[in-house]
Specification:
Blueprint (H helix, E strand, L loop, with lengths): L8 H8 L6 H24 L9 H10 L7 H8 L3 H13 L4 E6 L2 E6 L5
Length: 119
């Protein structure tokens, strides 16, 4: 069986890096899309949308953080059976989902609390 030789890889690279003919239109469209995305982000920042409560252990986190006393890392670790670094990761995950929280220190007890939305 005879094997055919494929085109060199450098030819494929040249095609991929060739300038686009509709560059000006593509750039203008990209700027317009970027501006629309920025407007959506500004609108989302100004409206206080309360994220939905997750289920499972993250839901239990939200319940404990919503109390007036809040919860410490050690309390959350004891309640879930997780290690402290895992609890920190779960708090970070809640923040990325839109839950605003703060760390308050009262009498040597550092507790995380959810920030109440003013809506």
């Amino acid at each position: 069986m005879a094997r055919t030789k494929s085109a060199p890889k450098s030819a494929a690279r040249e095609k991929a890096s060739a300038p686009r003919k509709s560059g000006a239109r593509a750039t203008a469209a990209a700027r317009q899309a970027q501006g629309a995305a920025a407007e959506v982000q500004r609108a989302a920042a100004t409206t206080s949308i309360q994220p939905s409560r997750p289920g499972g252990k993250l839901g239990m986190f939200v319940e404990r953080l919503a109390t007036d006393a809040g919860a410490t890392i050690l309390e959350l670790a004891a309640a879930t059976g997780w290690q402290r670094h895992t609890v920190h990761g779960a708090l970070s995950r809640l923040r990325s989902r839109g839950f605003a929280m703060r760390l308050d220190s009262v009498g040597g007890r550092k507790a995380y609390r959810l920030v109440r939305s003013e809506a």
